[in-house]
């Protein structure tokens, strides 16, 4: 049994009064909290037999499933440091600092299997997992007081492996639970990968903390099956990212996504990036419940601000909300002095859930481990504490002597065209736009250039370079 002061012990203690409560649903399989902890104990004994040591990092390669959930909890019980890998797998060659892998033989992405089998030696673990150890010297990093490793989004550069502490993880989960008002009678449908901190911490662990039920859905068919899942399991909370919302809106417009008027949803969250007003307004009509805009980053734990939006036409709908409990958000100028309300500057986060550091990159200049992190986001805070994010400092361009933020351009394009995702980059005095159009769209790059030129009163050909992608190859980017 784990020490009573650990996060996993707190979870177990909170679940003891709920032995028959359904913890996980995967397809036709339902697992109670009692059954789950029995499996956790079996994994714990096997991990001990295989010599897994406290503070040792163990990467778990697996799609979302009951066994993955049990394995993460078991690794915590032996005081190891789990690192779930089912997201950003293309960056695996940079992970030679991980000495041990547990690979799910049934559902691990091929890229993970190929990597670990070419670099490590394997041994049997059980019917589900294969244990694979480094067969040579590894560049092992000091973990300090890390309890969990997560991967940052890496939207503009190399994804970073972030170390979260025991206390910081607990604080972030508690703050997220309080901000969202999660309850033990909640049921959430989960398609976000657990290798993504938004899915692992903000959805799975936050719901587990209150003894709720988590439905592990197949991400490949999630949107098509979602109305059925909501009705069958009485889903109350749904966690999404902007491309999912845009696809749902698209399906709804064509009659392929319909919810009954008396459905069970209490709210739908959206995180991972900014959601434009047009999609927010449409989604609130489709779901018939509040949308919750969340803000954060893996380095901060990950959730730091929350905005329940019940009226899309309210100007506050553009805010990411107020800081969660235990979090302070400040706005700094170039000299790192705090700015007054409504004055734009760099977003700075103060929280006990801030990362203890990184595994695969140097310590950045503006990080105080476990306390403070200066982000790359540019925004402002109102006099009542609401946080508005304008974008990254370089995500703007001056046109006709006016500063145009990229999010203004995105608002125009998402509001006019059927787009799944946009990516904008500034290249000197031009803006490069990569766009993925939704299915059946006949959109071409010249239409986008002409439209932006008209809306912004410029010669679009001199400002914008547009590339239409007929694939979702960059959907895993932030």
Automatic annotation (TrEMBL):
Domain of life assignment: Bacteria
Membrane-spanning segments: none
UniProt keyword annotations, A-Z: Ligase
A Gene Ontology molecular function term of the record: CoA-ligase activity
Pfam (any one): AMP-binding
Location of the AMP-dependent synthetase/ligase domain: 17-358
Record-given protein name: Acyl--CoA ligase
Organism encoding this protein: Spirosoma validum
High-level lineage: Bacteria, Pseudomonadati, Bacteroidota, Cytophagia, Cytophagales
């Amino acid at each position: 049994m784990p020490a009573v002061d650990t996060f996993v012990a707190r979870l177990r203690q909170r679940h003891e009064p709920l032995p028959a409560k359904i913890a996980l649903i995967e397809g036709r399989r339902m697992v109670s909290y009692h059954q789950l902890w029995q499996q956790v104990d079996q994994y714990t004994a096997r991990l001990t037999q295989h010599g897994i040591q406290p503070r040792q990092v163990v990467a778990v390669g697996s799609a979302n499933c009951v066994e993955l959930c049990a394995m993460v909890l078991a690794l915590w019980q032996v005081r190891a440091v789990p690192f779930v890998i089912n997201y950003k797998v293309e960056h695996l060659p940079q992970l030679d600092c991980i000495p041990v892998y547990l690979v799910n033989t049934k559902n691990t992405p091929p890229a993970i299997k190929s990597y670990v089998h070419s670099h490590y030696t394997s041994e049997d673990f059980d019917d589900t997992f294969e244990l694979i150890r480094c067969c040579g010297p590894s560049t092992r990093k000091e973990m300090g007081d890390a309890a969990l490793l997560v991967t940052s989004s890496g939207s503009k550069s190399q994804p970073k492996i972030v170390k979260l502490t025991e206390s910081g993880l607990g604080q972030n989960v508690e703050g997220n639970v309080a901000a969202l008002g999660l309850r033990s009678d909640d049921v959430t449908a989960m398609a976000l990968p657990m290798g993504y901190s938004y899915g692992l911490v903000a959805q799975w662990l936050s719901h587990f903390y209150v003894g709720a039920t988590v439905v592990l859905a197949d991400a490949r068919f999630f949107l098509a099956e979602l109305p059925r899942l909501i009705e069958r399991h009485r889903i109350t909370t749904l966690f999404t990212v902007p491309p999912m919302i845009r696809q749902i809106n698209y399906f709804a417009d064509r009659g392929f996504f319909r919810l009954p008027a008396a459905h069970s949803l209490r709210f739908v969250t959206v995180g991972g990036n900014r959601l434009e007003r047009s999609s927010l307004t449409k989604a609130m009509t489709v779901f018939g419940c509040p949308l919750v805009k969340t803000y954060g980053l893996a380095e901060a734990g990950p959730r730091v601000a929350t905005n329940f939006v019940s009226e899309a036409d309210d100007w506050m709908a553009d805010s990411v909300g107020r800081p969660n409990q235990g979090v302070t958000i400040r706005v700094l100028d170039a000299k790192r002095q705090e700015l007054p309300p409504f004055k734009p500057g760099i977003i700075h986060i103060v929280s006990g859930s801030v990362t203890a550091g990184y595994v695969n990159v140097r310590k950045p200049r503006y990080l105080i481990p476990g306390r403070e992190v200066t982000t790359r986001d540019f925004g402002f805070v109102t006099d009542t504490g609401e946080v508005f994010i304008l974008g990254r400092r370089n995500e703007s361009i001056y046109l006709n002597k006016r500063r145009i933020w990229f999010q203004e351009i995105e608002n125009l394009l998402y509001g006019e065209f059927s787009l799944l995702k946009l990516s904008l980059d500034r290249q000197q005095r031009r803006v490069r736009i990569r766009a993925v159009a939704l299915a059946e769209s006949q959109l071409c790059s010249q239409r986008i250039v002409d439209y932006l030129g008209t809306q912004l009163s410029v010669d679009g050909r001199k400002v914008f370079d547009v590339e239409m992608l007929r694939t979702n190859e960059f959907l895993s980017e932030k």
